[in-house]
Every structure is written in structure tokens, then in C-alpha cells.
């Protein structure tokens, strides 16, 4: 069913100044600021929504709701960041080198601790051989796992779960805060040791943290967009980070060399698609200029593949995100992964899957999952778009 609010919210937070103002006014004219606030919370772009509607007239109840939720989001982010930084400090003291990427790194580099970047968790990358020590260190400092079973069992589950899309990580929790501890990041074109070797230090909350090289940070953001299937509700914040990242790269005279590195890393199709999405909202930005430059470096086939991913993004914007199971239908690798995982240990695989579904608040049995999938199978054109993403995400069949 078409969603009228989603396109307006995207215009507001991603669009050029004039388009953003018109979107804000349209939301206000439709008495949609209350729903807009709630949707911005879901999309994790509440600070940008608040800034975007600051120039329009809202009802007192809408204003109160927005202010209350904004304070809540900023407080939650501050608490989560503080807890994460304490965990990072503990790892450093234990001699475990951990790369901080995505949210916390964006706060330190792109937003400079400004309250306009919220986070839900902290993403860290360690070398595979350091995982047991890192987990033990975090558990000794108040974090805990909720997956059950042994670390070896969980590692095997992650390797055979297509939902992780090559993202090998374990989540540890403490007092409403989370650390996603990664040891493999397939799909970004670089290995963990390369990311760590090119890393640099930045300050966050009076603590030095290790963050990726600027181009590696861009690659990691693009990788996350692919992992989240180009669904607007999951990637809007990544798009904003990419927009800011391109501004920094252009300011430092590194925008063109960054595009060359993207091609060398073999991720030009998703990168071109991400930049293409940004260009569709604002053609006068460094991200748009990066898009045009990258187009000149890649083949017509790659440009066509990227265009299909841009189309997929806008389709999901209008109609809602496709269920992740749809992407499993159009590629053989996810089904092979699931079969391998169930074949190795049915009980362990289902237990870990159940824990993750409970955390994501969409646990369902196999019958319900199949019924939902049957209802959501899209038309042939959309299946082709899903297939284009699956080939980027999982590789060739």
C-alpha cells in the first residue's frame, strides 16, 4: 500500500533546501507532525526531522511530543555512547585493538559529538583471533551475551545465517546499551587487518578511539546499506553519513581518489547506487559530484546494475520494505547457508535464530513465515530488482 509520509520524510532529511522546506510544509499542512515524529524515531533521524520542521507551525501537542522524544533520543544516545566508550577503554587496557565504526565513529568524525547523531549500539571490529579475549574482557566489565550456548556454536550459526550477510559478529549488552563485536566484514572490499592497518585515532567523550580511514569508513557505510536491502527506514541515517563523508573527502581533496579506491575494492555497483540515491534528492552536493565521477570509471553493465538498486530503494520508499525472505528466494546461496546450518545442528541453529528474532521483536514460526512470504511476493519487475540486490549482497549463484 502506498505510503505518503515516507517520501516526504526522505525529502525533508535528504533533499536540497527548497525541496526539504516544501516537504516540511506538506507534513505540517497535513497535520502530520505527530506521525512524522514517530516515523523519524523509527528511521533514527529524529534530530534531522526536528531541524527540518523548525520553520513550520505545529500544534502545541505536536511540539511537546517532538521536544520530549528529542530529549529522550539524545539522553539514550549519551548513555549508550558512555557505556560503549567504557567497554572500548577496557579492551584497550586488556591489549585488544578494536576499530570503532559506523555510529560512534560518525559521532567522533562527522558530527564532532553534536547531538544530531543518535546511536542504538556501538560497532567494533577486532581480529578473529582476538574474539575470545575481547568477549571475556567485555563480560568482565559488565556486558553479557544473550544468545545462549557456547561462543563456538554461535560463531557457527553466524557463518550459516544469510540474515547476517557475511557480517560475523556477536552482541553484548549492558544497562540498555549494546556492543556489536565484529571479526569479519564481508562485502566492503577490504579485510579486517587492512582496516586496522589504515586506521587513525579520534577523540570521543574524552577517550581516544580507533576509527577507519575516511575511504574505508565510506566503504563500511555502503556495505551496511546493502546489508539492510536499500530499505529507506533502515538506511536513511547511513545516507546522511555518506553525504557528510563526501563533503569531508571533497574538502580534503580526496573525493576522486576515494572513487578510484571504491572501484579497486570491487564495490562500485552498491557505491554508485548509494550515491545515486543521494543525487536523486540533491544534485548540488559532493555526493552527487562523486556519483558523476564514479559513473565515468565503471562499465555500462555496472551503471545499469546500480540503477536497479536505486529503483529498488524508491520502490520500497513508496510501498514499504520487502520482507528479507524475498531476497532469499531469488538467490541460491541463502538457502544453502540455512540448509548447512540446520544440517550441522538443528537445535543450536533454531535457538540462536529465536534469540535474534526476539531481540528484533518479530519472532514467528515457520508456518507464519511461509504465509507472510506468500502474501508479500512482489511482481516480476520487483523480483528482478530484488535479484539485482541479492547478486550484490551474496555474489553470483
Helix and strand arrangement:
Elements: H1 5-14, H2 17-29, H3 33-43, H4 46-52, H5 60-93, E1 99-101, H6 103-109, E2 122-125, H7 131-140, H8 151-159, E3 167-174, E4 177-185, H9 192-197, E5 200-204, E6 207-211, H10 214-227, H11 232-251, H12 255-265, H13 268-281, H14 286-295, H15 300-319, H16 324-329, H17 332-344, H18 346-360, H19 366-376, H20 380-394
Walk me through what this model shows:
By secondary structure, this protein is of the alpha+beta class. The chain has a domain of 54 residues. Helix content is 64%, strand content 9%. The protein contains 20 helices and 6 strands. A 4-stranded mixed beta sheet has the order 1-2-4-3. The chain has a two-stranded antiparallel sheet with strand order 5-6. The radius of gyration is 21 Å and the shape is globular.
Identify the strand order in the major beta sheet: 1-2-4-3
Q: What composes the largest sheet?
A: 4 strands, mixed
What low-confidence regions span 5 or more consecutive residues with pLDDT below 50? Answer: none
Cα separation of the termini:
32 Å
What amount of the residues lies in strands?
5-15%
Radius of gyration: 21 Å
Spell out the helices and strands N to C.
HHHHHEHEHHEEHEEHHHHHHHHHHH
| Shape verdict | globular
Specify the helix fraction band.
Answer: 55-70%
Global structural class: alpha+beta
Number of strands: 6
Total count of helical runs of at least 4 residues: 20
Mean pLDDT over all positions = 88
Amino acid at each position: 500500500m502506498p505510503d505518503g509520509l515516507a517520501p516526504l520524510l526522505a525529502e525533508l532529511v535528504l533533499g536540497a533546501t527548497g525541496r526539504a522546506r516544501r516537504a516540511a510544509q506538506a507534513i505540517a499542512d497535513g497535520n502530520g507532525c505527530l506521525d512524522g515524529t514517530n516515523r523519524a524515531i523509527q528511521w533514527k533521524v529524529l534530530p534531522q526531522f526536528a531541524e527540518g520542521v523548525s520553520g513550520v507551525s505545529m500544534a502545541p501537542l505536536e511540539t511537546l511530543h517532538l521536544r520530549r522524544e528529542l530529549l529522550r533520543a539524545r539522553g539514550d544516545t549519551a548513555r549508550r555512547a558512555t557505556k560503549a566508550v567504557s567497554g572500548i577503554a577496557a579492551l584497550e587496557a586488556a591489549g585488544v585493538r578494536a576499530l570503532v565504526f559506523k555510529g560512534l565513529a560518525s559521532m567522533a568524525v562527522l558530527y564532532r559529538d553534536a547531538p544530531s547523531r543518535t546511536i542504538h549500539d556501538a560497532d567494533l571490529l577486532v581480529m578473529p583471533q582476538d574474539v575470545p579475549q575481547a568477549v571475556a574482557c567485555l563480560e568482565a566489565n559488565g556486558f553479557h551475551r544473550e544468545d545462549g550456548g557456547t561462543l563456538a556454536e554461535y560463531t557457527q550459526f553466524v557463518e550459516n545465517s544469510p540474515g547476517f550477510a557475511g557480517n560475523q559478529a556477536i552482541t553484548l549488552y549492558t544497562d540498555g546499551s549494546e556492543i556489536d563485536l565484529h571479526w569479519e566484514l564481508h562485502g566492503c572490499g577490504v579485510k579486517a587487518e587492512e582496516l586496522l592497518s589504515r586506521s587513525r585515532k579520534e577523540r570521543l567523550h574524552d577517550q581516544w578511539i580507533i576509527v577507519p580511514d575516511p575511504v574505508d569508513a565510506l566503504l563500511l557505510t555502503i556495505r551496511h546499506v546493502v546489508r539492510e536491502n536499500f530499505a529507506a527506514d533502515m538506511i536513511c541515517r547511513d545516507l546522511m553519513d555518506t553525504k557528510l563523508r563526501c563533503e569531508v573527502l571533497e574538502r580534503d581533496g580526496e573525493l576522486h581518489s576515494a572513487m578510484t579506491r571504491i572501484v579497486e575494492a570491487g564495490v562500485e555497483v552498491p557505491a554508485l547506487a548509494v550515491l545515486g540515491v543521494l543525487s536523486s534528492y540533491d544534485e548540488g552536493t559532493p555526493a552527487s559530484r562523486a556519483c558523476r565521477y564514479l559513473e565515468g570509471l565503471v562499465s555500462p553493465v555496472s551503471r545499469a546494475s546500480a540503477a536497479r538498486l536505486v529503483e529498488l530503494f524508491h520502490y520500497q520508499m513508496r510501498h514499504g520494505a520487502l520482507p528479507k525472505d524475498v531476497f532469499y528466494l531469488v538467490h541460491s546461496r541463502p538457502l544453502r547457508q540455512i540448509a548447512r546450518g540446520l544440517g550441522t545442528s538443528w537445535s543450536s541453529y533454531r535457538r540462536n535464530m529465536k534469540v535474534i528474532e526476539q531481540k528484533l521483536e518479530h519472532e514467528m514460526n515457520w508456518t507464519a513465515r511461509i504465509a507472510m512470504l506468500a502474501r508479500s511476493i512482489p511482481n516480476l519487475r520487483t523480483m528482478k530488482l530484488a535479484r539485482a540486490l541479492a547478486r550484490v549482497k551474496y555474489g553470483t549463484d
